[in-house]
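anyone seen this seq b4? input:
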Amino acid sequence: MKVNYFIAFDLGATSGRTILGKLEGEKLTLEEITRFPNQMLQWNGHFYWNIYSLYENLKKGFTEVARKGVPVTSAGIDTWGVDIVCVNPDGELCGIPYAYRDPQTIGKKEEYFDKVMNSKDVYMRSGIQHMDFNTIFQLYVMNERKCNSMQNADKILFIPDALNYMLTGKEVTEYTIASTSGLLNPESRDWDDELLKSVGVYREKWAPIVKPGTVIGNITDELAEELQIQPVPVVAVAEHDTASAVAAIPALDKNFAYLSSGTWSLMGIETEHPVVNEKTAEYNITNEGGVDGTIRLLKNITGMWIVEQCLKRWKKDGIEYSYPDMVKMASEAEAFKCFINPDDALFVNPADMPEAINEYCKRTGQAAPQSHAAYIRMIFESLAMKYRETLDVFKTLAENPIEKLHVIGGGSRNALLNQFTSNAIGLPVIAGPAEASSVGNIMLQAKAAGIVNSLQEMRNVISANVELSTYNPMDSENWNEAYQKYFEIINK
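predicted toks r here
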């Protein structure tokens, strides 16, 4: 039986990993080879991504896999969305790319709507939710201040496409990552020329759009020689990490919603066609590209970012909590004492997250949490309530009945939050795989290699290989009462 080995580089907003996937027949196993930090660089009032450090870590990943002496079929990269890199006519990167949490775009979408194109027209053209850091607003800001890197660029590449370019020398634009930009027409799956014109960037600035599962080419001979490895083919997988994660949902039917749970929570449903109408515009719901022509109809929700930033603040005081510590603390804290809206602007990137929570509580007439355990429980409960609020909207948009919620990504390991979520939404929660982005990345490479032929075949293999946990609703009456309290607070 033929054995195939695939390298998945899964890059998140706080860390990255090299995962080696082994597919033997229909048996899939994963092995983490390297793990490395991915921290935003803060300098001169801006936040950047250190793309050169990421590239060096990709090289290290190739080297460490080579030590294992296995024949590698291909490699692929998935990352977060929206952020871009400019490439000058000489083929060099123009500086370092801005990070989506950079403050330069705060308030700029409203300025764009006032001066350039109104919000409804933008949404009806792109089908993408309006968020300050969408690529369209990043480019608007760069164009307004006549940014040299943008004006002199021969090509503009998204982060994973730029890394693929650094590996292979080939420039492409992968469809799922491009669909996060707010510049793509969801029906044609191509650039919207009016939106491009509105930010002074025309289609000639972009590399050709390719579908997920396209082989880009081998790593360059120069890089192969430097690393002393064979020239490995690189695949444009579903490069937006959520697209890869959604492709890894072990669903055997279509009657589900999904929650990709991590630093961000992304909740949605899978559709065959874009859904762009008055209702999706009202709720700021996004239409992003998926695998095999699917659309990921979804909503971004601030996820574990709030907890992560609380932990970071407490660490400055010399206090650290392990994950089991957090779960135990939250389990023992009193329920439903106060709530926050996780998507409130206060929580985007505050200097002190617990203080931001205190400010929100004061603004909404609530007593702030009095212990670290109370903060953690309140955040988990508020996230569960936000998931219910969002799922209620998707129930009105879904073509099929929503009978369960698949939770994928790192947050699927959070048994307490999963149980809270099931309690809040009144439906079973099926958790796993935790390594969804890596699994989807690997299976897209398997599809490129002809081992599987469709999204459902990918999911069948995944379903047969991942260990799942199911959570059923409990204490429904109390959770329903608490939801009414939450809803009143967030609408104050």
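DSSP finds 19 helices and 21 strands in the chain. The chain has a mean pLDDT of 96. kinda curious what u guys think
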